[in-house]
């Protein structure tokens, strides 16, 4: 959202102190009588050029004198002051050096609302962990470890399209986590060169932003923590401000989250009383000061969301993985909720946009197939228990909603086990090679005291047996074990204490196969961990595959 150009209007008639115009040499009234600017516009932004000034006459004062308005241009301009203005109106009186006055009605507009924008993510591993694509062609993961993923998935309406800032040959769709400098040189590439620094991310992103539609460009921008302790706070803020200035002209909304503190268990200067803990507070204060009053920037206070408020202010219990640095799914969800709350009134949300008619079978009837499960499953679907042994899986129908009850005993040995709902071989969706498609599902899980793992992906089959690709935001690859504290797994367990209500979707995807029709099958999987004794009830309310 760019700062709006001032809109000037002129009143008919004379205000107090105006000189009356005449046919021959009379005094021209001061103007304009009305003007407009946007709440949060940068200080110094032009509100109005003062007209009607005589030779040597300047504007010398303005009321209200509360810092919201200021005089510039040698007494010829009214500009935005240092104090923030709220949406509404200001009745201003400008006084000239000759004692003339101008009554001006100034409308302060609320910042513009973005119409279903794209969010671009700039930052280190904390921000991008869980959003990066797997480099194997067989799968692309969209795991619940990114706060911006969670912000996008907490509503039935998608808030924004999401795009990581760049790509590489190894990661054709998304950028992997960023490595920061450790040598004090600041925000530069480190290591093998396969991961981009923030500067390199911005280098790659700027041409994209310049070509993107105005009014639809959000950037989520943050520095990382790896440099804290190796450079000073002033150096860190210098890097931040330099890169902020590069991005700001080409965005409509910039989201700047505060840093939060690593656990004292991280060691180094993060121990109790360590210098890095104070540095985070100082950096946050500097960033907040740098963006204050700018309507194009929203500062999101995540330190009070993620960290405890007392003592060493370590991350709240369960909010990070064992490294004390990266989000768990629980922490990412909490941060995502704060991000969503901060930006929601600046967005025009829209329902999931399909590419066409839903090709997946409607979840009606009860004539589907069962594999190591009992009960009912919708026509055209298969309900299967994972593995040869494991929890009891019972399907039931509630109209066109598929309900699955998973009951697990402590004695069951497999680390994670659950159910899978999919379209079996005979009913798979056929899409012409080279086409594009996307998948979406709504999953509602009743409150349960144990964590759950959720996977949603769409598989491509070039024959009746060969799976060519699996994709999805919540996806666990074969052989990987999701745990709350594992940073290696591509999907982590999710807190369902209060229940879950999620819309999960793939991005727009282009079929890999060529020359033949490709068959697609969506997979919805829910599992619980070893040792859990619980019944998890899942409602699958909508499932769709659309293609172009």
How would you describe this protein?
Helix 2 crosses helix 7 (about 330-345) and helix 4 (about 235-245) runs parallel beside helix 5. This protein has 7 helices and 29 strands. By secondary structure, the chain is of the alpha/beta class. Mean pLDDT is about 75; it is low at about 1-25, about 130-140, about 165-185, about 190-195 and about 465-490. Strands 10, 16, 18, 21, 22, 24, 25 and 28 form an 8-stranded mixed sheet that branches. Strands 17, 19, 20, 23, 26, 27 and 29 form a 7-stranded mixed sheet that branches. The protein is elongated, with a radius of gyration of 28 Å.
Distance between the termini: 31 Å
Evaluate the radius of gyration.
28 Å
- Poorly predicted runs: 1-24, 131-142, 166-186, 189-194, 465-492
Number of helices: 7
Q: Tell me about the biggest sheet?
A: 8 strands, mixed
Oligomer: single chain
Beta content comes to: 25-35%
- Strand segment tally: 29
**Average pLDDT rating:** 77
Which structural class should the secondary elements be placed in?
alpha/beta
Which percent range fits the helix content? Answer: 10-25%
Coarse morphology? elongated
Short description:
By secondary structure, the protein is an alpha/beta fold. Helix content is 14%, strand content 30%.
Write the layout of secondary structure elements.
Blueprint: E1 34-38, E2 46-49, E3 59-63, E4 69-72, E5 77-80, E6 88-96, E7 101-109, E8 114-115, E9 118-122, H1 125-128, E10 139-141, H2 147-153, E11 161-164, H3 198-211, E12 217-221, H4 233-247, E13 253-257, H5 275-291, E14 297-300, H6 303-306, H7 329-343, E15 347-348, E16 369-371, E17 374-375, E18 382-385, E19 392-398, E20 401-408, E21 416-422, E22 429-431, E23 436-445, E24 453-461, E25 467-472, E26 500-505, E27 509-510, E28 518-529, E29 534-547
Parallel strand pairs: 1-7, 8-15, 9-11, 9-12, 10-25, 12-13, 13-14, 16-18, 17-19
Antiparallel strand pairs: 2-5, 3-6, 4-5, 6-7, 18-21, 19-20, 20-29, 21-28, 22-28, 23-26, 23-27, 23-29, 24-25, 24-28
Helix pairs in contact: 2-7, 4-5
């Amino acid at each position: 959202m760019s700062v709006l150009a001032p809109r000037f209007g002129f009143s008919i008639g004379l205000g107090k102190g105006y000189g009356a115009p005449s046919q021959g040499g009379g005094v021209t009234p001061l103007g304009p009588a009305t003007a407009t600017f946007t709440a949060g516009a940068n200080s110094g932004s032009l509100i109005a050029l003062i007209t009607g000034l005589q030779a040597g006459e300047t504007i010398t004062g303005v009321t209200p004198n509360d810092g919201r308005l200021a005089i510039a241009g040698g007494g010829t301009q009214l500009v935005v002051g240092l104090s923030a203005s709220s949406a509404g109106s200001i009745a201003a009186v400008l006084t000239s050096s000759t004692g003339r006055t101008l009554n001006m009605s100034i409308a302060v507009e609320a910042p513009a609302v973005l119409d279903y924008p794209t969010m671009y993510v700039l930052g280190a591993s904390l921000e991008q962990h869980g959003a990066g694509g797997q480099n194997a062609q067989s799968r692309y993961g969209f795991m619940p470890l990114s706060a911006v993923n969670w912000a996008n998935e907490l509503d039935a309406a998608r808030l924004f399209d999401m795009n990581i800032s760049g790509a590489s040959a190894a990661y054709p769709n998304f950028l992997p986590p960023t490595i920061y400098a450790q040598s004090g040189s600041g925000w530069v590439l480190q290591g093998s060169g396969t991961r981009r620094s923030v500067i390199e991310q911005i280098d790659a992103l700027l041409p994209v932003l310049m070509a993107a539609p105005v009014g639809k460009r959000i950037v989520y921008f943050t520095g990382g923590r790896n440099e804290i302790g190796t450079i000073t706070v002033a150096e860190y803020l210098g890097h931040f401000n330099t890169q902020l200035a590069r991005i700001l002209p080409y965005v409509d909304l910039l989201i700047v989250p505060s840093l939060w503190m690593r656990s004292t268990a991280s060691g180094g200067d993060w121990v109790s009383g360590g210098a890095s803990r104070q540095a985070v507070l100082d950096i946050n204060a500097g960033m907040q000061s740098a963006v204050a009053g700018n309507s194009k920037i929203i500062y999101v206070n995540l330190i009070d969301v993620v960290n405890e408020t007392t003592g060493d202010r370590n991350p709240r219990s369960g909010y990070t993985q064992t490294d004390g640095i990266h989000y768990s799914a629980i922490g990412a969800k909490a941060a995502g909720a704060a991000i969503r709350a901060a930006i929601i009134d600046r967005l025009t949300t829209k329902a999931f946009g399909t590419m066409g008619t839903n090709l997946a079978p409607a979840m009606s009837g009860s004539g589907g197939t069962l594999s190591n499960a009992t009960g009912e499953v919708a026509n055209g679907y298969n309900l299967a228990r994972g593995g040869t042994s494991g929890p009891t899986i019972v399907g039931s129908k509630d109209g066109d909603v598929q309900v699955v009850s998973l009951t697990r005993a402590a004695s069951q040995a497999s680390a994670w086990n659950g159910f899978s709902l999919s379209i079996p071989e005979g009913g798979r969706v056929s899409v012409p090679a080279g086409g594009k498609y996307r998948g979406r599902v709504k999953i509602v899980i009743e409150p349960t005291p144990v964590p759950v793992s959720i996977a949603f992906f769409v598989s491509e089959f070039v024959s009746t047996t060969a799976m060519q690709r699996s994709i999805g935001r919540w996806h666990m690859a074969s052989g990987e074990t999701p745990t709350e504290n594992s940073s290696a797994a591509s999907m982590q367990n999710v807190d369902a204490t209060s229940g879950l209500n999620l819309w999960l979707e793939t991005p727009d995807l282009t079929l890999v196969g060529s020359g033949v029709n490709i068959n697609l099958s969506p997979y919805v999987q829910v599992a619980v961990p070893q040792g859990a004794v619980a019944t998890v009830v899942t409602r699958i309310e909508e499932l769709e595959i659309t293609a172009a």
